[in-house]
Backbone:
């Protein structure tokens, strides 16, 4: 993660020792929750994942690439839905081991719906004797992290006297026992918080970044994990950056690093990061990577709200989304069309919900991630750090877990990620002819149809229960695919959008407007219906936070004071089977009744 201007953070003086202990197992058989009982007990239920965490660990596949997709041995798509877990800071131990047993953390990762962890490491942990010789206890003592060490003794006694690399292996192994894939990410050379332009870890030739040492470190890690099946990928170096960065050296060293990893461990997918804090892979447009192997190379890109400064807060969100998404496409996502996987290996928001810049960015990045059905790794798992930038027990506001690693920091923020965890399409997922999903990125929910005796309503629901829509740009008509005689109609400002039979007029003609193309609108000026109120009506979410209505289109341009995101819907292509209970055929008798009752 790019070093930002220091965020306001809470210093936690509470002794980690007091908070240590096996006190908030969230999944599995042990449900004793003395310190955080109520919230923790309900959150898995809230997320609808209560049974997920209890499932036996599935065998982890060996991955390779097929055009832009990551696939298993059978050529079927495996979507990476990862969360980042740092182990590269000064102590060189995966964060949180003073808070929870490693197995409990791994089970939480599974329970939250992730299938993979991007686990970071520092080169010197394996190349520099002054670090690699240390045990966990010595590493913490060296930093005077006495309280953290005592807490690790309580929660993870087995790692305390291990060498750092053996503790790292124990973490990988625990993730594997829980069926989680791991991507080993070489994050820095010298252990510590990342990343600044001038921190000596930015580019080949920097103070701590000797290319030979780096290749040696990669080789050692690749070799050590060659026989560990759940290590499915290795990313060569996080966020290349700084005054020394240049494309010529990028090819020279990244190709060398890729060859070294592949030679030592031909099973892993080798992941290559771009320049400028992994924001820039545009140079690959003029010269491809040349390595001796194929089917095992992917690229990664990072995209944060602050990647564009405060643009989201100070600009109009539609205009900023259009501009930034086009820029990310030019810099990185264009590689998908050229047949390379692009892994969005860091993105995320301040989970407290008060960061306007992050909040507006989120809807845009989620729309892109759904549209392109990207592989990704959320920043980030950890609720806190042993030590970051000199602060003990620093609170991580981007963390999905809270400071005590007990429960999700924000259920709303976590639940909207779920829509992105399940693939929409790809090799082996052609379960249905392609259809359109009306995805609401800000909530991570999709437009579903609910029928009662008297009528059918449209509302936001789980994307797994989505209605299958057909949208034709020429006719501008949105119909349930299995009942093409019906169409989505606006019925006026503040009124529910409905399925109707009269599909020929302007109120049933939907176009994608605003620069972001995330507004789905009808032009009600042309309508003879007086109730429509005139002007452009946009699909929107009602005050109940659930019903799908239309309202006058909001903040389409210029205005930076309002947030258009409730009106943002992305038309996403899916080939996943549609839940049977949701199909028109299953609902036909009810539908017929509701047609008779409703006047069109
Ligand atoms: C080992 O680490 C020390 C302390 O950070 C550093 O000064 C030294 O350059 C490193 N040596 C190598 C060979 O990387
Ligand atoms: C650890 O504490 C000792 C004794 O107070 C002090 O001399 C040393 O500088 C401290 N080390 C660090 C890394 O803070
Ligand atoms: C790729 O690398 C190989 C081996 O170094 C070399 O022989 C070949 O000319 C290179 N191809 C291109 C297109 O640069
Ligand atoms: C959780 O995140 C949502 C969405 O950003 C936000 O509206 C809400 O205020 C956050 N809640 C808490 C408790 O942080
Ligand atoms: C909507 O229709 C009116 C009346 O024909 C027209 O003047 C207006 O330009 C249309 N608005 C848009 C955004 O297409």
Residues:
């Amino acid at each position: 993660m790019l070093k930002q201007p220091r965020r306001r953070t809470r210093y936690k003086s509470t002794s980690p020792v007091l908070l240590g202990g096996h006190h908030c197992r969230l999944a599995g058989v042990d449900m004793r929750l003395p310190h955080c009982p109520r919230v923790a007990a309900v959150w898995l239920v809230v997320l609808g994942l209560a049974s997920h965490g209890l499932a036996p660990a599935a065998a982890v596949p060996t991955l390779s690439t097929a055009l832009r997709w990551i696939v298993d041995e059978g050529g079927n798509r495996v979507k990476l839905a990862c969360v980042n877990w740092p182990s590269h800071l000064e102590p060189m131990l995966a964060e949180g081991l003073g808070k929870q047993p490693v197995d409990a953390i791994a089970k939480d990762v599974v329970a939250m719906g992730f299938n993979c962890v991007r686990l970071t490491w520092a080169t010197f942990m394996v190349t520099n004797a002054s670090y690699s010789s240390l045990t966990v206890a010595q590493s913490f003592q060296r930093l005077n992290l006495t309280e953290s060490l005592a807490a690790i003794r309580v929660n993870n006694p087995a790692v305390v006297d291990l060498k750092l690399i053996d503790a790292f292996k124990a973490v990988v192994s625990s993730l594997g026992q829980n069926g989680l894939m791991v991507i080993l990410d070489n994050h820095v050379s010298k252990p510590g918080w990342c990343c600044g332009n001038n921190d000596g870890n930015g580019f080949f030739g920097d103070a701590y970044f000797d290319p030979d040492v780096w290749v040696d470190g990669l080789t050692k890690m690749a070799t050590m994990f060659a026989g560990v099946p759940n290590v499915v990928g290795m990313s060569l170096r996080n966020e290349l950056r700084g005054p020394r960065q240049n494309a010529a050296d990028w090819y020279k060293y990244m190709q060398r690093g890729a060859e070294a990893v592949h030679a030592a461990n031909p099973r892993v997918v080798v992941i290559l990061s771009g320049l400028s804090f992994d924001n820039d892979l545009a140079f690959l447009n003029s010269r491809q990577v040349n390595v001796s192997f194929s089917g095992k190379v992917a690229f990664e890109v990072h995209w944060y709200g602050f990647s564009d400064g405060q643009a989201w807060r100070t600009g109009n969100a539609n205009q900023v989304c259009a501009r930034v998404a086009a820029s990310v496409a030019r810099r990185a996502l264009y590689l998908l069309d050229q047949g390379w996987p692009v892994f969005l290996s860091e993105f995320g928001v301040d989970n407290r919900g008060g960061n306007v810049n992050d909040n507006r960015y989120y809807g845009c990045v989620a729309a892109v991630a759904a549209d392109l059905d990207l592989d990704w790794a959320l920043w980030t798992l950890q609720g806190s750090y042993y030590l970051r930038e000199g602060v003990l027990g620093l609170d991580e506001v981007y963390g999905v877990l809270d400071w005590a690693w007990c429960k999700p920091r924000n259920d709303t923020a976590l639940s909207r990620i779920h829509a992105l965890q399940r693939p929409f399409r790809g090799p082996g997922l052609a379960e249905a002819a392609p259809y359109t999903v009306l995805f609401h990125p800000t909530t991570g929910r999709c437009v579903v149809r609910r029928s009662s005796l008297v009528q059918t309503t449209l509302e936001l629901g789980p994307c797994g229960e989505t209605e299958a829509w057909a949208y034709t740009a020429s006719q501008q008509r949105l119909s349930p695919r299995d009942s093409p005689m019906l169409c989505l109609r606006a019925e006026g400002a503040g009124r529910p959008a409905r399925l109707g039979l009269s599909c020929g007029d302007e109120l049933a003609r939907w176009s994608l407007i605003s620069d972001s193309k995330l507004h789905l609108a009808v032009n009600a000026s042309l309508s003879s219906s007086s109730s429509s109120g005139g002007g452009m009506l946009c699909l929107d979410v009602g005050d109940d936070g659930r019903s799908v209505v239309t309202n006058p289109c909001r903040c389409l341009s210029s205005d930076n004071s309002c947030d258009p995101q409730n009106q943002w819907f992305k038309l996403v292509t899916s080939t996943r089977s549609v839940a049977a209970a949701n199909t028109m055929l299953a609902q036909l008798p009810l539908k017929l009744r509701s047609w008779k009752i409703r006047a069109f």
User: Anything to note?
Assistant: Residues 6-23, 25-42, 44-55, 585-600 have pLDDT under 50 and may be disordered. The chain has two domains: 16-421, 435-597. The pocket of 2-acetamido-2-deoxy-beta-D-glucopyranose (ligand 3) is lined by residues 290 (CB under 6 Å).
